[in-house]
Specification:
The structure holds three protein chains of three kinds.
Chain A lengths: L2 H18 L11 E7 L6 H14 L3 E7 L2 H13 L6 E2 L8 H6 L23 H7 E2 L2 E2 L1 E8 L1 E5 H7 L8 H11 L5 E4 L9 H7 L16 H15 L10 H9 L3 E6 L3 H7 L4 E4 L10 E10 L6 H11 L2 H11 L12 H5 L1 H8 L4 E3 L7 H16 L5 H16 L4
Parallel strand pairs in A: 1-2, 1-3, 8-9, 11-12
Antiparallel strand pairs in A: 3-11, 4-5, 6-11, 7-9, 7-10
Helix pairs in contact in A: 2-13, 16-17
Chain B lengths: L7 H7 L7 E3 L2 E3 L1 H27 L2 E2 L8 E2 L3 H7 L2 H31 L5 H11 L6 H11 L6 H8 L14 H26 L3 H9 L4 H12 L1 H16 L3 H6 L11 H11 L3 H25 L7
Antiparallel strand pairs in B: 1-2, 3-4
Chain C lengths: L16 H33 L4 H6 L12 H9 L2 H32 L5 H12 L3 H15 L5 H5 L6 H12 L3 H9 L4 H12 L1 H17 L2 H6 L8 H5 L10 H31 L5
Helix pairs in contact in C: 3-14, 4-8, 4-11, 9-10, 11-14
Classes of the chains: A alpha/beta, B mainly alpha, C mainly alpha.
């Protein structure tokens, strides 16, 4: 009778042990199977899935399976997965391009060598230069852009007509004045988001020739130009109430969708949603700043894990992904500009209003905190709270000075 | 509560030696060990080992997959005690725990007593209050976030229609934490109520009879009969609620992400940010161990406070 | 048998007692009604929101019910997700883990409640300690462990690490302790060993506590998002909550779909809840949390 617990326990242990043992499957001579983790949840997903199925249909010897997970989950699993030599062949580690440096530190990325001008090579020269620069380290390329987006000014034609404004603003002064005029009847002139978003505030700073850090990674957020620019905008928020405080990107989008904000600085992903919400909107270039037109570019890196068993096929996939036909199709489907710079002559693309206006901004678009050490920390722990403080009425100069000190501590700047 | 008298059968079995087991490889195996084996095995492999690994990580500037890890010893812990974000997170977590546990105990108790009789309407009301417990945290966090939005949420809309100023609950640095606490209490109140109700129902009637014969009024009955009798229930409930609220993450993360301006940044939210966004695994592990130690101290204190002597 | 709980929390004054009592009772019920509204409104909003178009949702925030109806939320889920597969995976995960959990926890609780053995105090503290570890901490080590076992992306990887719970062990221990030892003795005199006492006497008498635990854990596991996302990497091993995250993007969120997904995910739980809740409140009551 008492022997039964022994048998039960023993059987359990044996079962556990046996399930752990998996005999190595012999290499099958079928198509090469590549796994890819991406974070493209939400409305963009169908466009990416269409790309993948196109690739699988046209390449019988390579089959790619894309697994879409929330960005947070990838952030939790991918480092450990790649570091232990397993994990997907391809992945977009984060929507933030600065994350590439972290994965380089753990030596998890495969350097891309299959570059060149051929049809099955990654045509590096023809890809968006800002993205390529962000993904190159020590002379080697480690990722291609899975997408690249710029921010433009969405404006509600209805709100503009109601306020008697003929066109979208072309200069910063017009921009600020229009925002004030459009703030009426419980609606905001401009939907600004300060966290969980592709950042909008840096654009406002750049318009006035100011910045957050300089090329050496030292903080310039407390420079006189920066403080005066930020003070103007902060006052517009706190005193003239042209924009809401503390919104996420999704919330700012909802405001514009609901007709409760007249303008929003947003990317191409929002166009489809606004259209189905019935907003009569136009897309204009961001008003010109003191140094001409400038806007923010955001790109998602697509990299190959170092431990992949099929480096050649994985790079072939990347080459196809960034190739002309794939990018044309993707741009038309998603509204994102293509990551290639040599598709300007394509009639379909230039005929598509959304794609062409966002693509036109690419040459003058800048990345947010490019190549800055500890960029994610600077963003989440310093910049976002800083904007939160100044939009809640705190003194800009003081807050900027504190922020600059903290930034220098993280980036390791010795000024 | 526990019968500690030794029955004849147990005495007999114990006289055969320590426990009634049998020998295997010279070690006397006790039958109890087979009963506890599966649970203990799982706990050791999937909880104890990982948490000790986490302690190991905290002694380094741990990088996943690196071949050589940089030893810092107690460096992470020292850095932690100088980190103002850590102390902020500690304050937020403590406030959250104290306020949410206290509110749930008080309101849960009142609800349990009000709905104690097994009438049809009481049973339905109890079920309604318990219902929020079954929905997923992340879902309900999103729903409440939407509801509390001043521009497009229900609460904001109602305030607007009655002509009041819309209040931005989740973006106001002083209102964000209370709002999150409110949602947490909303979700767990039914659960607390049910636990307390169970204890209440087990109080024998004769205790009340005896006290009322002595002329006790309602308040005295509550303080001198009910509460002392259900002390173990209150302890159990408080312990579970405290341990859970010190570890709160999902609700806060979904509703505010730790903002605005870190006013709802709890220890686990900070841990998550340091570990998975800033890639400071060692530092995050140090936070985890401080939290773990904190919970152990508080739990031990609570057990002592309620004089829980139910351990063999 | 049931306690005279009217005594608690009620004003029992000898003068004008019944009027004061009725007034007190009305206030109490008014407060409770407000509580009921607060408890239910989010659910009503969630379900009604799953039928509303985006324009309606943003344009009429003060209205609880849809002014323009759409089935887009539900059709999108059906079309874009391998819904039945997700449902099956969630059932296997939640159901399988619950069954194993009941078995392992009750065995452990039996030992703690009935047997004196070396290490019982250590075990008690070990079990309490497991409650105090936030899952985010053990995530990476467990992930690496599962990789070494070859259990990533498998059912056993999903189920076995979760197949025991401290809460369950304590709840059942309390319940077992309240079962009179005389029954054990009687069985022992008839020659029953521990296993038989456990299986034939203790378990059947603890049905309410076991049911309580089963329902509570099933619900928690059904709703668990993080764990299945960590363990599984392939779309056909995903559970329902994980599948629903596909609709929440960083910028673009289709609210009708999200809310429809939440509603669908809630339905089986609501059903189980309404079926089991009578048993359930009774069950917690007789766990003997004395």
């Amino acid at each position: 009778m008492r022997k039964i617990p022994v048998l039960v326990a023993g059987g359990l242990v044996a079962a556990i042990a046996l399930t752990g043992c998996s005999s190595a499957t012999p290499a099958s001579s079928g198509p090469v199977k590549l796994s890819m983790w991406t974070g493209f949840t939400g409305g963009d997903r169908p466009a990416y899935e269409a790309l993948i199925s196109d690739f699988n249909a046209s390449h019988k010897n390579i089959q790619v399976t894309m697994d879409v997970q929330p960005w947070d989950t990838i952030a939790q699993k991918l480092p450990a997965a790649w570091a232990t030599g397993q994990g997907p062949d391809l992945a977009t580690p984060n929507f933030d391009p600065n994350v590439i440096s972290k994965y380089l530190e753990t030596n998890s990325l495969l350097p891309l060598e299959a570059t060149g001008n051929g049809a099955t090579d990654i045509n590096v020269d023809k890809l968006a230069p800002s993205a390529i620069k962000a993904f190159t380290a020590k002379g080697k390329l480690y990722a291609v852009p899975a997408n690249i987006a710029t921010l433009q000014l969405y404006y509600s034609k209805k709100a503009f007509a109601a306020a008697g404004i003929a066109d979208a603003p072309k200069t910063v002064t017009e921009f600020q004045d229009d925002a004030k005029k459009l703030t009426a009847g419980g609606n905001y002139g401009l939907a600004l988001a300060d966290h969980e978003t592709i950042q909008m505030w840096p654009v406002l700073q750049w318009l006035d020739g100011a910045d957050i850090v300089d090329t050496k990674g030292c903080a310039v957020i407390d420079s006189a130009k920066s403080v005066s620019s930020l003070t103007t905008w902060a006052n517009l928020v706190t005193k003239d109430k042209v924009a809401p405080v503390g919104k996420t990107g999704a919330e700012a989008d909802s405001l514009f969708s609901a007709g409760k904000a007249a303008m929003e600085i947003n990317g191409p992903w929002a166009a489809a949603g606004f259209k189905s919400a019935g907003v009569d909107f136009g897309v204009a270039a961001i008003p010109a700043g003191v140094n001409g037109t400038v806007t923010l570019a955001s790109t998602v890196p697509l990299a190959i894990g170092k431990s992949t068993k099929h480096p050649k096929e994985a790079q072939e996939f990347l080459a196809w992904y960034t190739g002309k036909s794939a990018q044309t199709k993707f741009a038309l489907a998603s509204g994102f500009p293509p990551v290639r710079t040599d598709l300007g002559a394509d009639a379909q693309l230039s005929g598509n209003a959304i794609v062409s206006s966002f693509a036109a901004a690419l040459p003058t678009a800048r990345l947010y905190l490019p190549g800055v050490t500890g960029a994610t920390q600077v963003d989440s722990e310093i910049y976002v709270p800083f904007i939160g403080q100044i939009t809640r009425g705190e003194d800009v100069a003081k807050a900027a000075a504190e922020a600059a000190k903290k930034i220098d501590a993280i980036t390791g700047c010795r000024s | 509560m526990t019968s500690t008298e030794v029955t004849p059968a147990a005495r007999a079995s114990r006289s055969r030696g320590r426990g009634d087991g049998f020998r295997l490889l010279g070690i006397r195996l006790q039958p109890a060990w087979f009963f506890i084996a599966p649970s203990v095995l799982i706990i050791l492999v999937f909880i104890v080992y990982p948490i000790t690994q986490s302690l190991w990580y905290s002694l380094f500037n741990w990088q996943i997959g690196a071949t050589n890890q940089e030893w810092v010893g107690v460096g992470n812990y020292v850095k932690l005690f100088h980190d103002e974000l850590f102390w902020n997170a500690l304050r937020v977590t403590a406030t959250f725990a104290v306020v949410s546990v206290a509110s749930q105990l008080v309101v849960g108790y009142l609800l349990a007593t009000a709905l104690a009789k097994d009438t049809w309407i009481n049973r339905v009301t109890r079920s309604i209050f318990f219902f929020p417990t079954i929905v997923a945290l992340t879902t309900i966090g999103l729903v409440w976030r939407f509801l509390l939005d001043p521009d497009i949420g229900l609460v904001g809309g109602i305030l607007h229609t009655i002509g009041a100023e819309p209040i931005d609950f989740l973006q106001n640095t002083s209102l964000a934490l209370p709002s999150v606490i409110f949602v947490s209490v909303w979700k767990n109140l039914g659960f607390t109520m049910v636990l307390l109700l169970a204890g209440l129902k087990a109080v024998p009637a004769y205790l009340y009879e005896a006290a009322r014969i002595d002329g006790a009024n309602a308040r005295q009955l509550t303080w001198h009969v009910t509460i002392p009798t259900i002390r173990p229930t209150i302890l159990f409930t408080t312990l579970i609620l405290t341990i859970n609220s010190l570890q709160v993450f999902d609700l806060v993360y979904v509703m505010t992400g730790g903002g605005p301006l870190f006013s709802t940044d709890t220890l686990v939210t900070q841990l998550f940010r340091e570990g998975f966004q800033n890639f400071h695994i060692g530092y995050a592990s140090a936070i985890a161990w401080v939290l773990f130690a904190l919970i152990m101290i508080i739990a031990a204190f609570q057990l002592r406070l309620f004089r829980y002597n139910d351990v063999d | 048998m049931s306690t005279d709980l009217r005594a608690i929390g009620r004003v029992r004054s000898p003068r004008g007692g019944s009027i004061r009592r009725r007034l007190g009772k009305t206030t109490v019920w008014m407060i409770i009604s407000i509580g009921i509204v607060i408890a239910l409104v989010p659910f009503v909003w969630m379900v009604s929101g799953s039928f509303r178009s985006e324009a309606d949702l943003f344009g009429n925030p003060a209205s609880l019910f849809p002014t323009s109806w759409t089935l887009h939320g539900y059709t999108a889920i059906w079309q874009q997700l391998p819904f039945l597969r997700l449902l099956l995976n969630t059932l296997i995960f939640a159901g399988g883990t619950t069954v194993l959990l009941l078995l392992f926890d009750s065995m452990c609780a039996y030992a703690l409640a009935r047997l004196k053995f070396r290490g019982s105090k250590l075990l008690f503290w070990l079990v309490i300690a497991t409650l105090m570890v936030p899952i985010q901490v053990t995530l990476i080590p467990v992930f690496i462990e599962l990789f070494h076992f070859g259990w990533l992306d498998t059912y056993q990887g999903l189920i076995i690490p979760r197949a025991t719970s401290a809460f369950g062990i304590f709840l059942l221990r309390q319940s077992f302790i309240s079962i009179p030892r005389e029954l054990d003795e009687a069985a022992r005199i008839d020659g029953a060993g521990h296993l038989r006492i456990y299986a034939r006497i203790i378990l059947p008498l603890s049905k309410p506590a076991l049911a309580t635990l089963a329902v509570l854990h099933f619900m928690t596991l059904w709703n668990d998002l993080l764990w299945p996302l960590i363990v599984t990497s392939s779309p056909d091993m995903r559970t329902l909550p994980a599948g629903l995250t596909l609709f929440g993007g960083q910028h673009v969120t289709d609210h009708a779909v999200l809310l429809a997904g939440a509603t669908i995910s809630l339905l089986p739980l609501a059903l189980a809840f309404f079926l089991a809740q009578r048993f359930f409140v009774q069950g917690v009551a007789t766990t003997g949390l004395k």
